[in-house]
Design goal:
The complex is a heterodimer of chains A (254) and B (409). Chain A has 254 residues and is α+β, with helices and mostly antiparallel strands. Chain A is built from four helices and 13 strands. Classes of the chains: A alpha+beta (254), B alpha+beta (409).
Chain lengths: 254, 409
């Protein structure tokens, strides 16, 4: 009888431990919003890369295509050069937080500051400001995991990004990050008053040298009528040797 | 004694009162003469500016550009403007034409963006189109063909902190709806007659503008002037040529249809005529007052004249003739004084300077009144008619006075 009582007590304790373990286990193994964003950034940041692609810009007057190639280093240095006939030789250089434009018909480079950063890149849905972000989101935003949702049949973490200060393009963003490959599948950008400004959707991804990244992205400026921009990457080489001084201002005008 | 003689004698019976009446009519006539001269000057100025800088006398544009003008769709162009110009020049109604390329531009000064509007011109054709083009050069010279030179509006140059010998870089949107930037050498500063142009415009050779805008032989618009000022005839001839030989999809418009200045002029014309009427009414109240005072003072005399057999109609004519003499003197003096003031102003102009600087209209800062002899003569007769009509009612009252009643006063 005594033995039976002890056995019952043990069984109850084991049951309690199992129940506790079952409750604790999900939070022990799930990722936090910060960790998800970190893994997403790791996935989309490369030491160096060479990219070739095109932008298909749609507005109420029709479609047009701009082709380009780009060199990148880390997440805050890139040089984009356009190769399509109407923009041939035009370049956009990002060095840290500075953005410079070079046009073959101009004898000086244009450093974009202030409200000029809100202007559109070649009339697309991408603003110059969109090209300056991305360096350590944690510096500028606080993250909150809102839950999980399915985007194009992919299970995604839904994360809200709230700006820490005012020196960012968007006070609030919502990211949908793939729970398997940590690719950003969709994002929405909002104004301070809550108005939706932009939607970015990843239509295709590609894998290269162990990295998975968006290969076709559609960006829609919600403030413009009948507008949309598709960014399509045709070639991505990771870990390439960059041309010497490729991110220098001297090289920009050369 | 004839009625006219009695009336003339009566005018001088109370010199001061007659002088007051004459002065009232004269002031009204002078004001109207000046007002009409100024209106005529504004009309000529708006037409000059619209024809040279805005719409031409007749304008050819892509119809789709007109449709979406609020979006500034620079991709809608007039194709192969040189070939089109050659065909247009064959039309006997065309005195001069000017193909143009408009450049929406912005220049960066630190964090400031300064908006500007480039106008690409064929300076050889432009000398013919705008005979007084050289007059806008305040400093330096006009750009040379085949260069990247530009002449900037005075105020735009000040905003940019640029002068002759400097370079300025502008960012623009091209015909391909993409962006481009270009640098121009400033070779001159222009004193555009219109403040809005002075604040924003720069002129450059059409070849350079076409290259920067990726226009590929196209122009934004072609402006035309007629040989004889018959705008509608020119418009019909150009429309017929385009519908027969193309290019298709063009819109031919006369300046009266598209010029903002012309609409203003139509409105101003009505407003100024109302003001003129107001001046006449003001002047006529003095005439009415003077005539009534005269009748009141001469009631006994009217009674005597009636008793002696003068009929009512003759009395009306007497006072009417008196008013006519006063009206002639006042109107003539006013019109002549107005003309004497307006004629020198035709040459010196009236500088509205600061008041006009922020006005976004094709009106010059210095306005030159133009004395139109037809309207001046009409002003004289209007003034006279108003003065005569003003005396009619009190004169009829005098004619109705009973001699017995009048003699008792």
């Amino acid at each position: 009888m005594q033995y039976l009582r002890i056995a019952r007590r043990k069984a109850w304790r084991i049951g309690l431990l199992v129940a506790l373990a079952a409750l604790v286990a999900p939070s022990a193994f799930a990722l936090s919003a910060d960790e998800i964003i970190e893994r997403m950034e790791d996935n989309q940041t490369h030491p160096t890369s060479y990219i070739e692609g095109e932008m298909v810009i749609t507005d109420r007057f029709g479609d047009r295509v701009s082709t380009f190639f780009a060199h990148t280093e880390g997440d805050d240095r890139f040089l984009v050069e356009f190769t399509s006939r109407d923009e041939e030789g035009q370049r956009v250089l990002r060095r840290n937080d500075d953005l410079y434009l070079y046009y073959p018909d101009a004898r000086e480079t244009i450093r974009l500051t202030g409200s000029a950063l809100r202007d559109s890149l070649l009339g697309s849905d991408i603003s110059y400001e969109d090209m300056t972000g991305g360096r350590g989101l944690a510096e500028d935003y606080k993250f909150e995991l809102l839950g999980e949702e399915t985007v194009d049949d992919r299970r995604c973490y839904k994360i809200e990004l709230t700006a820490r200060g005012t020196n960012v393009a968007y006070p609030k963003q919502i990211y949908w990050v793939d729970s398997e490959d940590f690719v950003l599948r969709k994002s929405e950008q909002y104004a301070r008053a809550g108005r939706k400004l932009k939607v970015t959707e990843v239509l295709e991804t590609m894998e290269q040298d162990g990295y998975i990244f968006p290969a076709r992205i559609r960006i829609t400026d919600q403030t413009r009528r009948s507008s949309g921009t598709e960014m399509i990457l045709h070639q991505v080489d990771i870990g390439v040797d960059l041309p010497r001084g490729v991110f220098s201002l001297e090289q920009l005008t050369w | 004694m004839k009625l006219s003689g009695i009336a003339l004698r009566n005018v001088f019976r109370n010199g001061r009162r007659s002088l007051l009446s004459v002065t009232a009519v004269a002031v009204a006539a002078l004001s109207i003469t000046l007002l009409f001269a100024l209106l005529e000057g504004i009309r000529a100025d708006i037409r000059h500016n619209a024809w040279n800088y805005e719409s031409g006398e007749v304008r050819i544009r892509n119809a789709e550009f007109d449709r979406y003008e609020y979006l500034n769709p620079v991709q809608y162009v007039v194709p192969d403007h040189r070939a089109l110009a050659e065909r247009l020049e064959q039309l006997p109604q065309v005195a001069a034409l000017s193909p143009r390329i408009n450049i929406p531009a912005v220049s960066f000064r630190g964090e400031r963006q300064i908006s500007a509007r480039g106008i690409g011109l064929d300076f050889r054709m432009e000398q013919e189109y705008q005979e007084d083009l050289d007059l806008i050069v305040a400093e330096g010279r006009l750009p040379a063909t085949g260069t990247s030179e530009a002449i900037l509006g005075n105020r735009l140059a000040r905003e940019l902190g640029a002068g002759v010998g400097d370079t300025v870089t502008f960012l623009t949107q091209t015909r391909a709806r993409t962006s481009n930037a270009f640098t121009v050498d400033v070779v001159g500063l222009a004193a555009f007659p219109v403040a809005a142009l002075d604040r924003t415009a720069f002129l450059l050779p059409i070849e350079a503008a076409g290259h920067y805008m990726r226009m590929r032989d196209a122009a934004s618009e072609v402006l035309l002037k007629s040989t004889d000022g018959r705008t509608e005839v020119l418009k019909a001839a150009v429309s017929a040529l385009l519908s027969e030989e193309g290019p298709e999809g063009m819109n031919v418009a006369s300046w009266t249809e598209v010029s903002g200045g012309y609409s203003y002029l139509q409105m101003a014309d009505v407003v100024y005529r109302i003001i003129a009427l107001f001046f006449f009414l003001l002047g006529s109240t003095v005439i009415v007052n003077t005539t009534m005072m005269t009748i009141h003072e001469r009631t006994r005399e009217i009674g005597t004249l009636s008793a002696m057999g003068m009929r009512g109609g003759q009395l009306v004519r007497l006072f009417f003739t008196e008013a006519t003499y006063l009206g002639i003197a006042g109107s003539l003096a006013g019109v002549l004084a107005g003309a004497a003031l307006a004629v020198p102003l035709q040459y010196t102009g009236i500088d509205f300077g600061a008041q006009m600087e922020m006005v976004d209209m094709d009106l010059s800062t210095v306005l030159y009144p133009v004395l139109n002899w037809r309207s001046t003569v009409l002003t004289f007769f209007y003034s006279l008619a108003v003065a005569m009509l003003a005396s009619f009612v009190p004169a009829r009252r005098a004619a109705k006075l009973q001699p017995v009643v009048a003699l008792r006063v």
